[in-house]
Design brief:
alpha+beta; Rhopdopsin 7-helix transmembrane proteins; Heat Shock Protein 90; 2 domains; five-stranded mixed beta sheet; elongated
Length: about 425
């Protein structure tokens, strides 16, 4: 018949095994989604690893308690030390996770330093206790026994928990409600368990609560990312609507049609070519609304040339266009270069006395492809550019480049000298199945 002590041992070991399995399943999920979860996912993974190590140390301590094996005493010394150490490390990592959610180094540096100081002091006192036994001792019969200063180990743990709680309250406006609830649960429930454990010797339900709340924290991270993904999908849908409503601009259409109208009388053949370019321009914009995938730069360049041919007819000698394109067989989001050309014409050269030149270049580098749109127009001061808001927008272009192919947009301008816009497409960011 199993006595009370054996029953307690079996129960606690079973709880430890269940916690390890739960933590390993959550850790596998973190590893699968770490690229999506980002920095928060890394902290979640570290928290789960520390939790697994702490539970393993606890299980070893339970299993070898009272054992008569020669090496049992050594195992108990190390298992108990690391059980305390990993608990302190868990609190530190949770604090760093909370700080990472703030993304404000200036206001969180003090909190971060305090977290490390508490962890360092806790670790030093724990090491000292291994020599003077102020926290606990391992008897000659291999049993764990609390010492008079055991309460100090609890105080150090509670200090770390209180610091994390204060950070969560202080910066609550920067955390989503579900994040706050998960963090509160992690801090408060195990904290209550730690306090009860001081009086209920031999009952190990603190690690079970730790594990359950860590799983809740991970699930909450996935939920937040899923919601952000849906929001991003809505933003893309709105962006496509913006393209439909604004990219086909009435003023450009009126000007193009006016040019074609004049040419019908003066030069019918040129009017026919202008009408064909205008038709191609409109067709590309409308087809773009239906596309979610990347397109060849060759297609984007044809659209650019259709647009510029109409503007050259309108501005005449005031607009010069130069091309230096050494490669076109790469993919990029549609309407990621043409709006930059449009900005150069409309906001860079149209208001410049004597007109100017737009230069379009594309080259292959070792790591990717670089497209540059340059003009010698009036330029602008950083932060004062207003043209992007009238159509697809620089921010929209930058987001689509980053999301769709890992690309980037950089704009440089000097008032009175002109503007340069760089679109960079990394080779590794282009899906292999679509790469040309």
């Amino acid at each position: 018949m199993v006595n009370t002590v054996e029953y307690s041992l079996i129960l606690n070991l079973s709880i430890d095994m269940a916690c390890v399995l739960l933590s390993m399943v959550a850790l596998m999920g973190v590893l699968m989604w770490v690229r999506v979860l980002g920095k928060n996912g890394i902290y979640a993974g570290i928290l789960l690893i520390l939790n697994i190590l702490q539970i393993t140390a606890n299980a070893l301590g339970l299993f070898f308690k009272g054992a008569t094996l020669d090496y049992a005493h050594t195992i108990l010394i190390f298992s108990n030390f690391f059980e305390f150490f990993f608990e302190y490390a868990l609190s530190l990592c949770m604090g760093l996770y909370i700080i990472s959610c703030m993304e404000d180094d200036d206001k969180t540096t003090g909190w971060k330093i305090t977290a490390f100081v508490i962890f360092g002091l806790s670790a030093v006192l724990l090491i000292i206790s291994q020599f003077n036994g102020m926290y606990y001792t391992i008897s000659s019969t291999n049993y764990y026994e609390r010492s008079e200063a055991y309460f100090l180990s609890l105080i150090m743990g509670i200090l770390s928990i209180l610091l994390n709680l204060l950070m969560t309250i202080r910066f609550r406006d920067r955390l989503e409600k579900s994040q706050r609830m998960a963090i509160y649960a992690y801090l408060i429930l195990p904290g209550i368990a730690a306090a009860l454990q001081a009086y209920l010797y031999g009952i190990f339900f603190m690690m079970l609560l730790d594990t359950l709340v860590l799983n809740i924290l991970f699930i909450n991270m996935l939920n937040i990312q899923a919601r952000k993904y849906k929001e991003h999908e809505r933003e893309l849908a709105n962006a496509r609507m913006d393209v439909m409503l604004t990219q086909i601009q009435p003023h450009f259409m009126y000007n193009a049609l006016a040019v074609i109208d004049r040419l019908c009388v003066k030069d019918p053949e040129m009017a026919r070519k202008a009408l064909a370019n205008f038709s191609n321009y409109l067709r590309f914009n409308i087809n773009t609304l239906k596309k979610r995938e990347l397109i060849s730069f060759d297609d984007e360049l044809r659209h650019i040339k259709a647009y510029l041919s109409l503007e050259e007819m309108r501005y005449g000698d005031l607009l010069n266009v130069e091309y230096s394109v050494s490669c076109v067989k790469f993919l990029l989001p549609p309407l990621s270069v043409q709006p930059l050309v449009e900005n150069s014409v409309k906001h860079g050269l149209s208001d410049k006395e004597g007109g100017g030149t737009v230069r379009i270049s594309a080259e292959e580098t070792e790591e990717g492809f670089l497209v540059c749109v340059e003009d010698d127009g009036i330029g602008f001061e950083p932060g004062e550019f207003k043209g992007a808001g009238t159509h697809i927008g620089l921010k929209n272009i930058s987001v689509r480049l980053s999301e769709m192919c890992g690309g980037s947009l950089k704009v440089e301008s000097v008032p009175g000298k002109g503007t340069k816009s760089y679109v960079y497409i990394p080779k590794q960011g282009t899906p292999e199945r679509e790469y040309l």
